[in-house]
Amino acid sequence: MRLLYSEPRLIVAADARWVLERTEAALGSASESTWAALASPMLASGFSGSDGLELAFSLVERSEVARRELSWLFEPVRLDSEDAGRQTWRAMRRREREVQEFSEEVDRAIRESLDAFDGGETDAWWHVNVSLTRRSSQDELEADLTRLPAWGQIDEPTRTRIVDGAGPYLKQQSPNAELWFSTNTLHRPACAGYRALYLLAKLRPSEFRDLDDATWARWMPIVLGYPRSSGINDADDVHVQVMLAAASRQPAELVRWVVKAIEAENREGEGHLWVLHRLRPVDAPEITRALTEKIADPALVARARADLVEHVMRIDAPAAIAEATPFVTVDQAARDAGTPVAIGAVLLSHAPARAWLLLEPLFEAMPTHGVEIVGAVAYGEHTDIGGQLDDDALARLVSWMFEYIAPAEDPPQKAGVYWGSPRESMGRLRDRLVEILAHRGTDAAVSAIEALRDRHPSRALDWRLRDARERRLSRWTGPEPKHVVQLASINDARIVLSEEHLLEAVVASLRRISRELRHGQPVTAPELWNTAPARRPKSETELSSWLAAKLRRDLELGGRVINREPEVRPSSSGKGIGESVDIAVSTPLGSRVDGARSATVMVEVKGVWNKEIKTSLSEQLVARYLSASSRHGVYVVFWFDRDGWDNTDWRRDRWTKGLGESTAIFDRQANEVSVSGDVSVRAMVLDGSLGGRSGRFQVTAWRPDHGCRTWKR
After folding, report:
1. Which pLDDT score, from 0 to 100, does residue 485 have?
2. In a designed cystine with 632, which of 2, 338, 362, 503 is the match (CB 3.0 to 4.6 A)?
3. pLDDT of residue 568 exceeding 60
4. DSSP-assigned beta bridge partners for residue 587
């Protein structure tokens, strides 16, 4: 043992064959056991060589002494045996020795490179990287030098010298992208540049921020092309920080290299654009615009174009859909089947409602392409696509699937655990969409499933039809007796089945509230005014709350919206500040259960003095408050005659137009936005004046001590 582990080493593992030969020569002599005992640890210390092992096996067969010392090479070893313990000890000693030798060698190489760097050889910094990553090929792909095993084995002053060199290396060296970009070449000087960026971002953020634009432009190829797996460290904050900084400092340069990478991967790769994974954190307009325009590049293969569409959809779905639309037509499918299938699957996965409108003609004209699209979507288990389709669209999709992905052709179920086929996934998606349709329980859903059951009779559809009918029944809520009585005396009662119906109900309610302001019994206009310390209209916040209470009373308690429970919600502030609409009127369409579809009408309230009164209808109500979930709104303006209004109130002279002219202005605005856009907006001007130029009004009210009286103010 002293020979084997002496310092300096007098005998090494490579001498094992020579020792085996000495053992063979000593067979039967007194020295045989000594030579065999020396051969055993030498073989255990890492010797490899087939001829040496053959000689050892020969000795084991011929000698009892050799068998005792060397049989562990060829026989199983019990883990709890002394032999196992000896081998474990030997392995630990060998690893310790290797680590020590490696550490000393790496430390010496790093110091030599850093000395050269300090002497003016700037490129010596990438040699430091080589020394730190030389333990394994996996280490060479690590961007964070501080995570490498070798980093933990060097002292703190050496680490500081390495970090100090990162900035000068970036400023004075170049990645030489023409030698490696978009190839399988691992260019160590360029990789060192990315590690320098990573190191500064992690340990020297101020120095990282101070890098000039020229440095960012020069190293852009490796920022985009550093060879790390798309699925590893995608959430690494430092990787994201480096990419966002590059996009912010040099967006045009990033676009240039992204386009180069796309063209190379499209030309030489398997079709997928892996470079797009690097851009997931980036939301820069210049880059999004360039990628959107690239979708139309005729040189792109189907898979690459679909990857581009999918990437842009995460940032700007309308733009992506607009660019993708020409590639999912019947004419396009006749020329190139691959492109409509690849892009169609992306659209149906990420924007089902819009996609189905585009794809339905293709599905009907070329069912085989439709089946391929559904297969691509179903295999990814995108079973939520039914939630975004309305009843009619979902019914048409389900009907098509029963026709071309027929239940009778579903593969038989297998026992046990196995990997399902694409065809099985399509069948599961079809059945899931039927379930979603049935759970809605609407008239349209029931009718669709009835028609489906008639064309494709089955026990499963019988059950789905029963489920749909039961849910429709459970959604219906009978009117209360008082509502039935009111219904007989109200000529504008209505059942709400859509947002348009609810909009009409809200407008009708506002007309009734308007009449009550000036002609009610009693009139309600005085409720809009403060009288102390002077007579002034209430604030917009108070007006919004007042109107919300009136709408709640008129819609919910007045019985005019039958079999529904309208909810009138003012904003938390009581006023539409920022992105908070003043009032939202909502009601379920046929159900009070969780998940039921509902209609919502947004109501924006303005006092006649508001400085943005001319523009808020389009810029606030339409542009900010009307979304995909609600496209109907009412713009309400409270108008007040200036007579009787405290003339020291700054709001009094903000708006000088009369009631009739004001009504015409806002009616015209509402009509214009409703015609030009996909919204439905009404305008209502409520007259809160105090009863004419004299400012006098008549009030009839109940006084508990006098009964009903009329008096003047």
Report:
1. 63
2. 503
3. no
4. 599
pLDDT tens per residue across span 207-244: 999 999 999 999 999 999 998 754 444 456 899 999 99
**Nearest one of 555, 523, 525 to 543, comparing CA atoms:** 525
**Residue carrying the six token digits 């039935």:** 484
**CA distance linking residue 78 with residue 116, whole number of Å:** 53
The pLDDT score that the predictor gives to residue 694 is 34
Query: Of 137, 124, 210, 106, whose CA–CA distance to 165 is shortest?
Result: 124
Identify the pLDDT of residue 1.
53
Q: Is 381 helix (H, G, I), strand (E, B) or coil?
A: coil
Give the model confidence (pLDDT) of 393-422 as tens digits.
999 999 999 999 999 999 887 777 667 788
Alpha-carbon distance values, 138 to 186, 190, 235 (Å) = 12, 17, 19
Give SS3 for 686. Answer: strand
> What does the pLDDT look like over 590-621, one tens digit per residue?
544 444 567 788 899 999 999 889 999 988 88
Q: Treating both helix axes as pointing N-terminal to C-terminal, what angle do 317-324 and 285-294 enclose, rounded to 10 degrees?
A: 20
Beta bridge partners of 586: 567, 600
Q: Tell me how far apart the alpha carbons of residues 208 and 105 are, in angstroms, rounded to a whole number.
A: 31
- Give alpha helix (H) positions in 182-284: 188-203, 205-209, 213-225, 237-249, 251-268, 275-278
Tokens of 436: 């979603």
Asked if 422 contacts 375 with a C-beta cutoff of 8 angstroms, the reply is yes
For the stretch 254-274, pLDDT in tens is: 999 999 999 999 988 677 898
User: Quick check: 33 and 65 in contact, CB under 8 A?
Assistant: yes
What is the model's pLDDT at position 65? 87
Cα–Cα distances in Å, from 60 out to 16, 35, 38, 54, 69? Answer: 15, 13, 15, 10, 9
Question: Does residue 190 contact residue 234 with C-beta atoms inside 8 Å?
Answer: no
Radius of gyration of the chain (CA): 40
139: phi > 0 → left, psi -120 to 50 → alpha, else beta; which? alpha
| Structure-block tokens of residue 710 | 């009329």
Q: Which DSSP letter does residue 210 get?
A: T
Count Cβ atoms below 10 Å from residue 598 Cβ, excluding itself. 18
Which secondary-structure segment (H or E) carries 684? strand 680-687
pLDDT number for residue 489: 58
SS3 category, 638: strand
Q: Please check the confidence at residue 487 and state whether its pLDDT lies above 70.
A: no
Q: Please, is 140 exposed, middle or buried when counting C-beta atoms within 10 Å of its C-beta (0-12, 13-18, 19+)?
A: middle
How big is the chain, counted in residues?
713
